[in-house]
Automatic annotation (TrEMBL), chains A, B:
Keywords: FAD, Flavoprotein, Oxidoreductase, Redox-active center. This is Pyridine nucleotide-disulfide oxidoreductase. One of its GO terms (molecular function) is oxidoreductase activity. Belongs to the class-III pyridine nucleotide-disulfide oxidoreductase family. It comes from Haloferax marinum. The keyword Flavoprotein applies.
Length: 449, 449
């Protein structure tokens, strides 16, 4: 029988390969990875640059040797799949030894995403970086360690921008953060964004909101200035983090359907429009648990679990890849921010809901317990169905994992009134008697009537 | 119309009074409280004794004056209800001005619970305390502050015992903790208990497990020794915390039905067997969300939300008091322990389930992120229905609120396989990619097949 073939050796690909091999050790699994790293911790890159993660190797979760020797996976580094013939069930591969074709029984496309490179002038200058790979993280890290820059520019106030602000600041450099929109962290909503922005400013970050970067300039091919409208700021390094785009070209060139988001369309088992071809991870869409519609939210857990589920399905045990709720958390210096579901009211209306939202301030601990900190929560419910649609929160402690209770409510079609009566844990060092989530649900429920 | 009458001015009673008054400001609400404190933070007492909560008044959440003046509640301190005539719809009251009867339109019994006083010799000695009221907390606090005891005994390894071990230890005294059973914290299961026990020993607590205390001895009416089997330990103070019993006598004397647990039986709206008589809080049973059967788990949130729901029901808007999951958290020095649902396999079998459980070790943060700590989780599922039945966990961070995700799963009849695919938050400082709860569900699901 032809082997299982997997394109891309990161989270989704290696999870699928590992799971399939556990189920069918006698079958061959080939993974083609065009780079030299597999299964690496992309989310750890800002912390490596910060210096909090000391060793580069700590970002490598499982070594290529372990996959090859311990898990008996035929992993081929520096092999790029350049074409898929879905009819013939084979892929065209460029490798160090030349080009060849490989036939497959079942194929998984796990090509990931890439950092979007905006059409700025000067993107090619030395000193302008994106954070799209371990090599780019290493490059930025080495500049910070060895070249003592005095000022850096971050373009984009998403996760990467926020985490990198903290990372650069730890090196004692001036940090300029440019965001085109009125607020950073768009998916978290305005309330969270404003708290994060205040905190970034308190930490000394120079925030430039509603500020479109025009490009970069410098002599001798080296970055010296970031150009903004009429002005310019002197910087030694720029990091462009304006989002990612799915690596969907291999699939679309093969005639495989993409979704409206531009990522590869899949069914609930991760199947693409081509027979025996699956897609997972940052190159693929997911189904949103609140709307039931396809969405593109490329995050690590989604890739891991979809890969694992597809490994299981390819092994004969049909397993859905799971819906997403868009749950996410981010650390911004001493703040934690988290979100899940649909927070944006216009997005909720587009999905057919009649959104009602409340924002409250609660406490992370019993009011009398030392160290209690405010937690600010926005929760959105649907007036018709009374369902919880989403929530966002921000505070100095007890935020990142508190959002999971709301995520659980989304996965179970829980109404706001039902959430209000969940029996959540209480002890003075960890929560008020009514957990902030319960209090928010209580207030929102009063407004839904 | 006769007033709403409430017996007991703590969490359940004052929540009901406040909620009813908000709905019907024109109606009279009388609260009879036999003591002088209302709506106080009983759970904060150990932290007051520890010295972490500096002011006694911080434990008083809302003052009597605020209830009377701001909320227009007819609160009568030092008034004890000594009888209920459910037929005549009136209560007999002993107050500072004498005895009288008060008729009611609807009645809420919120008499709370009391510390169990075991039939030990020497319970009456000076220096032997229970922690049943703010006054008792004040007495223990004052001894610790003013009399510099050198050794104390705690009898009972439940929440109170564990929290008080930390509180006493903060004063630099020798702490002996006696537990009759093989392990402390019985509701949390053996795995959690063993971690807590190791940690208590590391912190210098002298743990005496499987050790029944026979009594106390001392000359001149003052405690000097705790007696255990053939031996004795010299102590200056003893705190007996072997559990609480519902104050259900007032109800049972009035012919109101008690449940098998000994607490007042109620329906889903908090109604007792007598017309127009409700019960809530530590004197009443609750329905367990996993078994659907009555249970007695006297905790603060249950009292608060049942009181509020009953206030709403009495006001004409029928509102269920909510099921409990037995969710609880406790801090033991640097450890957090938490539990929800059914953990004990024999209890699960009694309830008709076929329990399967797993215990795993996971990490509180990404493995490479500084400060990551182990989290140990036990999760129990039902082989037939595949439902999650309960979980317990312990670790140095990220435990107390992580249990809430499992509690949410219990409230929504979620299967282990469904829980495995919840989209929970991930960022390296707060969680591994697969949250420990997801990993545990994944492993348990594999065992359920």
């Amino acid at each position: 029988m032809d082997p299982i073939v997997i394109v891309g050796g990161d989270a989704a690909g290696m999870s699928a390969a590992s799971k399939f091999k556990r189920e069918h050790p006698e079958r061959d699994v080939i993974v083609f990875e065009k780079g030299e790293y597999v299964s690496y911790a992309a989310c750890g890159m800002p912390y490596y640059i910060k210096g909090a993660v000391e060793e580069f190797d700590d970002l490598l979760q499982v070594s290529p040797e372990a996959f090859i020797e311990d898990r008996d996976i035929d992993l081929r580094l520096h092999h790029e799949v350049v074409g898929i013939d879905t009819g013939a069930h084979e892929v065209a591969v460029d490798g160090p030894g030349g080009s060849f074709t490989q036939s497959y029984d079942q194929l998984l496309i796990a090509t990931g995403a890439r950092a979007i490179e905006p059409p700025f002038d000067g993107m090619e200058l030395d000193g302008v970086h994106t954070l799209h790979s371990l090599d780019s993280a290493k490059a930025v890290h080495d500049v910070m360690e060895n070249q003592s820059p005095s000022a850096v520019a971050i373009v984009g106030g998403g996760y990467v921008g926020i985490e990198m602000a903290e990372a650069f600041d730890a090196h004692g450099v001036d940090v300029h953060l440019f965001e085109m929109l009125p607020h950073v962290l768009a998916p978290f909503g305005e309330m969270v964004a404003e708290h994060v922005e205040d905190h970034l400013r308190d930490e000394g970050i120079e925030l430039h909101l509603e500020t479109a970067v025009d490009g970069f300039a410098g002599d001798d091919g080296t970055l010296e200035r970031v150009l903004v409208g009429d002005g310019a700021f002197d910087v030694d390094l720029a990091l462009v983090g304006v989002g990612v785009a799915p690596n969907a070209e291999l699939a679309s060139d093969a005639g495989i359907e993409l979704g409206e988001t531009g990522a590869i369309a899949i069914d609930e088992f991760g199947r693409t429009s081509a027979d025996d071809v699956f897609a997972a991870g940052d190159c693929a869409e997911s189904r949103h648990v609140v709307t039931g519609a396809p969405d593109y939210v490329p995050l690590a857990l989604t890739a891991n679990r979809a890969g694992r589920a597809i490994g299981q399905t390819m092994a004969g045990d049909e397993t859905p890849v799971g819906d997403i709720a868009g749950t996410a958390a981010v650390k911004a210096f001493d703040l934690e921010a988290a979100r899940t579901g649909i927070i944006d009211e216009s997005k909720a209306r587009e999905a057919g809901f009649d959104p009602v939202s409340v924002t409250i301030e609660a406490s992370s601990r019993a009011h009398y317990y030392p160290g209690a900190k405010p937690i600010h929560i926005t929760m959105v419910g649907d007036r018709d169905s009374k369902r919880v649609l989403g929530a966002a929160m921000v505070g100095r402690e007890g935020v990142a994992k508190r959002i999971d209770t709301v995520a659980a409510a989304l996965h179970t079609d829980t109404t706001v009134g039902e959430l209000e009566y969940f029996d959540l844990s209480y002890a003075p060092p960890f929560s008020p008697t009514w957990d902030p989530v319960l209090t928010t649900a209580k207030v929102l429920n009063g407004k839904l009537d």
